[in-house]
Design a protein that fits this description.
Elements (H helix, E strand, L loop, with lengths): L8 E5 L10 H9 L2 E6 L6 H6 L8 E6 L10 H16 L4 E5 L9 H8 L5 E4 L4 H8 L11 E5 L4 H9 L3 E5 L5 H10 L6 E5 L7 E4 L11 E6 L9
Parallel strand pairs: 1-4, 1-5, 2-3, 2-4, 6-7
Antiparallel strand pairs: 7-10, 8-9, 8-10
The structure holds S-adenosylmethionine (SAM).
S-adenosylmethionine binds next to α5, β8 and β10.
């Protein structure tokens, strides 16, 4: 057992992809961290790590949390339980630990599974990040919502009946986690006569970004994709 004062547990939003969309605070804290943890897919590189790569110290101890990026198998609680214990060991030894989170940590972020396990035992600070919601509406160059419009954010894997009811009750809609659900979501929005008001964005803010009217979207969507719909009557849509 160490006599050191415990370190601080940082949940750091690194933004939606473009490293220039990382906050100054995120950059400063990551650059100062000797212990850096991040979610990583079962194959390929960690998106959060790639975004923050330039800020990570060469001598940093890295803790990849290998979790599949497929919506159906998320969250992988055993992985977070194991990572939480590793991180707790560093914190107890007096080291600060930076956990990198794509977008914003508390907006559908897996960071919350670590937060739930560690925030009562250690000092914790959450650094907000630019979320994919903001990045996708910027990529579409279309306001997300206006005045008293209701914005509804819906995970695409929800059943059609839920999606239909929630879309019916909103003026502006963001459908997250589109991925393999794209064909079903397109059919649903077509049947609701909303395709003309819907935009499709994948990998917002990255060089590989794709922005299309939903009608022109590809047949297959990656995990990092979103559909934005505007059903309201704000005059910004009618120049
Ligand atoms: C688990 S959520 C994480 C959201 C993240 N914490 C945030 O603040 O944006 C993952 C979903 O966010 C959306 N997403 C994240 N980054 C994106 C990007 N660069 N472009 C498009 N969609 C993105 C996709 O819908 C994806 O399925």
């Amino acid at each position: 057992m160490s006599d050191a004062r415990p370190g601080t547990f940082y949940g750091i939003g690194v933004g939606p992809g473009d490293p220039e969309l990382m906050t100054l605070k995120a950059h400063r804290l990551i650059s100062a961290s000797r212990i850096v943890a991040y979610p990583a897919p079962d194959s390929g590189e960690s998106f959060a790590r790639a975004i923050a790569a330039d800020a990570i110290r060469p001598d940093a101890v890295e803790i990849p949390m290998i979790v599949p990026m497929r919506v159906e198998r998320f969250p992988a609680q055993d992985v977070y339980a194991g990572a939480a214990e590793t991180i707790a060991g560093h914190l107890a030894a007096g080291e600060d630990v930076a956990v990198l989170c794509e977008g914003d940590p508390f907006f559908y972020g897996s960071f919350m599974y670590l937060f739930a396990r560690l925030s009562e035992r250690f000092a914790c600070e959450v650094v907000p990040g630019v979320s994919s919601l903001a990045a996708c509406s910027a990529a579409l160059t279309r306001p997300l919502t206006a005045r008293n419009d209701v914005l509804t954010v819906i995970p695409g894997p929800l059943p059609d009946d839920d999606l239909r009811a929630r879309i019916n009750g909103a003026e502006a809609v963001a459908i997250m986690k589109v991925g393999r659900h794209l064909p079903r979501l397109r059919a649903l929005l077509d049947a609701m006569d909303l395709t003309a008001q819907a935009g499709y964005v994948e990998r917002a803010s990255l060089r590989e970004q794709v922005v299309l009217p939903l009608a022109d979207a590809p047949d297959a969507a990656p995990y990092f994709s979103m559909i934005l719909i505007y059903k309201g009557n704000d005059p910004w849509l009618t120049p």
